[in-house]
Each structure stands twice: as structure tokens, then as C-alpha cells.
Amino acid sequence: MLNFEFRNPTHIVFGQGTLPRLDGLVPADARVLLLYGGDSAHRHGTLDQVRQALGQRHVEEFAGIEANPEYDTLMRAVQQVRHQQLNFLLAIGGGSVIDGSKFVAAASLYDGDPWEILTHHGSVLKEALPLGCVLTLPATGSEMNSGAVITRRALQAKLAFMHPVAYPRFSVLDPCLSMTLPARQVANGIVDAYVHVMEQYLTYPCAALPQDRFAEGLLLSLIETGPQTLAHPHDYDARANLVWSATLALNGLIGAGVPQDWSTHMIGHELTALHGIDHARTLAIVLPGNLQVRREAKREKLLQYASRVWGLDDGDADTRIDAAIRSTREFFESLGVPTRLGDYQLGAAHVDTIVEQLQAHQMTQLGERRDVTPELSRRILMACL
Ligand code: NZQ
Ligand code: ZN
Q: pLDDT at position 281, please?
């Protein structure tokens, strides 16, 4: 039975040549901090265009937010915000920069130890500075959701927080800004968005027809536009559809009122924290093994997925499920994303430590039925070798 609240306050400005719109989106009297990553925003001219759009506003910069944004780096940005009395954050980048900026926005106004924001997964928050985003990498959906994932290497921890105060006020999505991405990052983005849909869709039926059809539509769009974008990086239509699919995959729409899994993500976060594997690449490893091990609990949705997404209608049910899991793996591989732990020189000997880290982070009751215990996570990881 459907029963839910749905809210998404992020204003999206989508399309080619939309960066000048920043002038109308950022308050005229704002004291702005631009946050970005390495040198891609600078090198490709995005930073200059943003500065131009902001005109005479007071603008400061914080550079160097790394992939899998690091707590200690972000705390330096918090100091800068406080010291220079800045009151508006503008993130320019992909999920790492946007997530990191969400944390800076929240931590700058937080009285206690900011690490609590992560250990309590956001529940301690009451306010955050306003944040706007300029998206340069379609993947995470962070530009239109209230979540963020922060790493603290010293503790080998990668923890998420989520809170309504962390929604961006606006996000500018100019698909052309992502045309400079290397193929590896484009492929990562396709896989990440695909798995976001799967985490919210491939659970058990609950009479949520629009959510199911939207989810299947997004999967089909990713299967179509992903390879087109990789083959033709300057094809605007393919790129624009990829960008919007990735945003819609995790802006709350398809997840409203439905059971959600997220175990692939939580196991994947440990792989990134321990072994430095790109976020999306951890998902490509874990998802096929996860579906395989939990195929009975997910049976009805696996059959629906097989039929509606992969057109697999022949043969007995188990044959169709096998084929759907195989098609998923082959899709990731076709994008150049490996799908086995062995592809990263990891084997059975590494599994215990990953499971121990899940336990250390209280990730002991995962999945849509909270039945993915450490023992089940171990079986899943063994199916990913
Ligand atoms: O640092 P620079 O030089 O900017 O280079 C970046 C970075 O190295 C580069 N890049 C970004 N835009 C570019 C570009 N290079 C050329 N041209 C451009 N236009 O791409 C590299 C990767 O960027 P990153 O932001 O790390 O990638 P992604 O967007 O995949 O974000 C991954 C992070 O998001 C988290 C992940 O855990 C990971 O930390 N996630 C956030 C979620 C959320 N907030 O809802 C959900 C996801 O499941 C995910 O967990
Ligand atoms: Zn993800």
C-alpha cells in the first residue's frame, strides 16, 4: 500500500549555455565560496565562466576537494567559511565536490564535533548554509538530493549523512560541461546511476506502478544513452539524456514509498575505504553477486526486470533470472567497467576484513528486509570473486 511524503526543493536549470543564469540564482549580496576539486574546473574554463556570471559579488575559492572527499580537507573549508564570514556555497564538480560542499554547509553551522554529523548519519542537523551546484559529472544525483558521503582515511571510514537542510537550493546542469570527462568517469557515472535505480527498484513488488515504470524507463535510457555517449562524447542529445537520467535516478522520485535495498552501496563503500576502488566500480563488482545470492528473496522483481528491461521472456524462470544477471554484468563490462574482485587483485583472503569493517560501521542489517547480516554479506562477497 502506497503511503509516503515526497519533497524535493532543488531548483534545476538544465541545458546548454545555462551558466550565466547563476547571476539570477545566487543572491546579489551573497558572500560566496566556490568549492571545486583538482584542476578540471580550472583547466576547462568552467571556473572562469562562473566567476564571470557572479559579477561583482564577493567571491572566495576553496580548491582541492578530492574524489571520495576527505573529512580533514573539508574541515579546512569550514575554517575558511567561518574566518571569512562567507554565507553562500557554490560547488563546481561531480559527486565528490557536491557531497563535500554539503558537509561544509552543515558543519559550518554545527556547534558540536562535526564528525557526529556522520556518525549520526545527519540526524543531529538543524541547519546548513545555502548551497548551489554546477554539475560537471553525471553520476551520483547529489545535485538534486539531500545525501552526502564523506571519507575519513585515518579511520578507514566512508560514512553517509542525509538531511533535508542539505538539499542544494539550485543546480545548474549544462550537459556540455561534462563533455571533457575521460571515458572512465563517463562509464563510472553510467554504472552508478544504473545501480541507484536498481537499489530502489529491485526489491519486492509493492503495487507502486509509476515508480516501477519510471525505474525501468531510466534503466532503458541508461542502456541506450550510456554507450552512445561513450562512443560520441560530443553528441549533445545523448549526453543530455544521460545527465538527466542520472539526476532522476536518485532525486527521490522513484524511491518514494517503495522498499529500498542499498546493500550494494554499503558493501561498496567498504571496498572504496579499504582498497581505493572508484565508487561505481565497487558497485559493478557487488551488484551481480548480490543479485545472485539473494535471487530467491528478489525473485518476483528479478523476473519483472528480466522481461521489461532485457526482453527475456523465454525459458523457465531460473533461466530468465540467470540471463538477467548475466546481461547486467555484460552491460557493465561493455562500458569497460570490470565486475569481479579478482580484477583488482582481491580474493577470498580479503573478504574477512571487508566484513569486519561492515560490522565496525554497524552495517549488519542491510537490504530491503534488513536481513543482509555480516554472514550474508560474506556470501555475497564470495560470489563477487
Ligand atoms: O578533481 P577534478 O580535477 O575536478 O577531477 C574530477 C575527479 O577526479 C573529474 N571531473 C569532474 N568533472 C570533470 C572531470 N574531469 C574532466 N571534466 C569534467 N567535466 O572526475 C573525477 C571524479 O569526480 P567525482 O566527483 O569523485 O566523481 P563522482 O561524481 O562519481 O562522485 C563520486 C562520489 O560521490 C559519492 C561517492 O561515494 C563518491 O564519494 N556518492 C554520492 C551520492 C549522493 N550524494 O547521493 C550517492 C552515490 O551513491 C555516491 O555514493
Ligand atoms: Zn552510488
A: 98
